[in-house]
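Sample intake sheet
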Amino acid sequence: MKCYQMKSTVILLEISKKLNTIPMRIYTLLFIVGLLFLSCGKDNEEVSNPTPTPTEEGNSNILLIIVDDLGKDALSGYSEGTIKPNTPNLNELRNKGLLFNNFWVYPTCSPTRASIITGKYGYRTGVKWAGDVLNDSETILQKHINEQTNNKYSTAVIGKWHLAGSNNRTYNPENLGIDYYAGVISGTADYFQWELTEDGATSTQNNYITEKFTDLSIDWIAEQSKPWFLWLAYTAPHTPFHLPPSEMHSQQGLGEYTSGADVLPYYMAAIEAMDYQIGRLLSSLSAEERDNTTIIVLGDNGTPNQAAQSPYASNKAKGTLYQGGINTPMIVSGAQVSRTGSDHNIVSSTDLFATIAEIAGGATTEINDSKSFKSLLSLGNQTREFQYSEKNNDTTDSWTISNGSFKLVVNANGEKEFFNLTNDPYEQENLLEGTLNGNETSEKEKLEEELLKIRN
């Protein structure tokens, strides 16, 4: 036990010995005991019972990992699907954090990414399908954070961009307000031979793309001296189906992928290889830095139809507004997260804009079409009443809205579908093909009213 007044206590004891009466000596000794308690007790309490200081907004690092074509049927923790990949690192994040069950994105990758980086619905930005271009006039999340926090954060985007069209090799996302960009501007034609754009220059790469994105991420984080926000967008497990390096996956008996082969083990192998690399990235952080990092992992759209598992039909997976296309996995773990388990609140991809900004110390909890769900990380309070998504691939223009219990899908040609997600979570029965009861009629009218507000 530390005590910084021992010298003065010895002096007082010497004085007490010189006192002539026993009562006076007793009073003096009692005073000394009290002095010892006051002078040493507080110090002893601080050493033996330290109180952890929670990470404050604006001080934690933020790691956003976007997985390309990951449905709930392809990740442990969700009931959908029977074949799951071996993902120990994602499992650990899930077990120590929150698994979201009602997270909505867009049917394809570009509009989901645009909704996250702008906090706006696709029809406001013009990004409603894969390959659509994000206008340079948009205020992106990284720029918004540093406007809100006086440039407190270092920011990087590493990996798939896919917001500049399909073949724009000269595009540099850094011009939008990102400190560092390295990755592929459009989609991926090959996992082993591909074009890397870094700081505006393009070079041909011959190493496994999932590993390279991880290497770039590890190197960039190591260079940072202030809080950082890393947007890491893997191309895995998006096509082309392929055989990853053997040390990165557990799928047995696979040769090089050939057309007509069962795609599911190759799809699983790509997910496992990505999980392996996520483990490398997290292991590169010190224990202190890991504890001070909020980690968000999500799928940008549902499983591709070739790999979709029951209860998702192949025609209700990626590219559609059915649950198999837009209700994807999301895990939030690490700093700022004090709840664990499954969360069933409705959340939209646009909400990541306000949520990440609030984690970074921004003062705004609602902006554009984005509502922060940061409170869900600790309190579990509902943050929105409706969620919205849409698609426009130049053939089909449609949109959908849900309150978590009922879901309405509307096509520009006037066709509608209406589902009771509580009783029919995988949309087998269009209630409009029968007669609605009073409650169903009321719920449909509420969704139609809110949809009108959103789109006007």
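Comment: Confidence is low (pLDDT under 50) at residues 1-54. The chain has three domains: 6-48, 61-385, 396-454.
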